[in-house]
Amino acid sequence: MIVDSIVIGAGAAGLMCAITAGNRNLRPLVLEGGNQPGAKIIISGGGRCNFTNLDARPESFLSENPHFCKSALSRYTQHDFIDLVNRHGIAWHEKTLGQLFCDGSARQIVEMLLGECAAAGVRIETGTRITEVGHDGSHFRVSTDRGEVLGRSLVVATGGPSIPKMGATGFAYDIARQFGLRVVTPRPALVPLTLGGDDLALAAPLSGVSVEAVARLGPASFREKLLFTHRGLSGPAVLQISSYWRAGQAIDFDLAPDTDIAAFLKARKAERPRAEVKTVLAEVLPARLAQGLASDQPRPIGETGDKALTALAERINRWRPIPAGTEGFAKAEVTAGGVDTRDLSSRTLGAVKVPGLHFIGEAVDVTGWLGGYNFQWAWSSGHAAGEAV
Ligand code: FDA
After folding, report:
1. So which residues are the signal peptide here (predicted)?
2. What is the pLDDT of residue 86?
3. How far is 222 from 227, CA to CA, in rounded Å?
4. Structure confidence by residue, pLDDT tens digits, 169-211
5. Does the Cβ of 16 fall within 6 Å of ligand 1?
6. Please, what are the domains in the chain?
7. Is the beta carbon of 12 within 6 A of some atom in ligand 1?
8. What are phi and psi of 244, to 5 degrees?
9. How much is the pTM?
């Protein structure tokens, strides 16, 4: 069988690419290894799919080349996707920080994309195992357990290795290397962090406690919820900063960003000397966190030395743990790194040295913040490739 374009992977990026190509009267064939298209969309955003972000802009994406994402993002924006969602009558709301979710279910987004695919003449074959990919001089040749397909162009939209139990693989990197493209070492991103030593001794008993915090690493700074876990730290502030974190680096946390704890404790020491330190702290922190932080200060605040109070304040406004690691690809919402943008055109997502070969979505070394940014990259990069194949 010969088709205009073969798209491997029926996720967010692959489906958008196929729709765009189909609307140009090409008849794309999408080959999907799993049993259903858009599996990650269905589980995304707690089942409501945070499908884009009102504030999506290039600064919200990490890459070895921070400029690479600009072209695709500017040619298919969050507003283009919102228009599509509106045309399909899908109700949505802004939850927080520009994050847009379906009112109903993430399945509506998949149904919308499949409806668009049907209207654009896209064929999708699920449950297809790809055994070999090659190029015979004029066509890309994809061998599967159901036979061979030839295509003038080949789009690899197989995502990254995060959440392997959902069938996620490093397939895109293998194809990239096979055709001579470089790959930026993939690493788990938007992932919980693990702690060790004293930091874990603080965090583990607080498992389940969450607090509004600021997480900082170099120029990156996020003010969102931090969640203590039995292994370390999670919650949006931690997931966000995890994408920037490299082994051995300390992360700065302010666990009470609206309060100068040193000044607060000093004032309370004068006003309420008989109060316990944990009771005082519970005025500005969740009670369990206050108790955990003040566990080695059992005496009333009036009898607690200034040095101890200063150290306590430091631990709250300027806590600097060095994470032991991350919870890995098994728990990572996305993969950072991927197909090296130096070997791709930012306009077409095509391989510079291999005409007709494109890589889109999470497979590429472009990673968004938490909050709908990764789907926006999937839509934008999928659209850019769909216009070019
Ligand atoms: P994606 O992984 O979606 O699709 C790749 C497809 O290729 C899959 O269908 C896979 O089965 C298939 N495939 C893989 N290997 C193959 C092979 N060898 N042969 C054939 N097919 C193969 N982002 C966001 O913006 N908002 C959100 O709310 C969420 N929520 C969220 C929750 C959870 C639990 C996770 C794990 C992730 C998110 N994300 C998210 C991230 C988002 O899901 C992710 O960035 C996009 O799905 C990436 O889209 P892609 O199409 O690139 O890959």
Report:
1. none
2. 98
3. 14
4. 899 999 999 999 999 999 999 999 999 999 999 999 999 999 9
5. no
6. 2-188+334-388 (3.50.50.60), 192-327 (2.40.30.10)
7. yes
8. -95, -15
9. 0.97
The CA 75 to ligand 1 mean position distance, Å, reads 22
For the Cβ of 10 lying below 6 angstroms from any atom of ligand 1, the answer is: yes
Taking residue 103's Cβ as centre, other Cβ atoms within 10 Å add up to 10
Residue nearest to atom 36 of ligand 1 (CA): 333
Residue positions counted in the chain? 389
Does 374 contact ligand 1 (Cβ within 6 A)? Answer: yes
Dump pLDDT digits (tens) for 275-313. 999 999 999 999 999 999 999 999 999 999 999 999 999
Nearest 5°: the CA angle 195, 331, 287 is 50
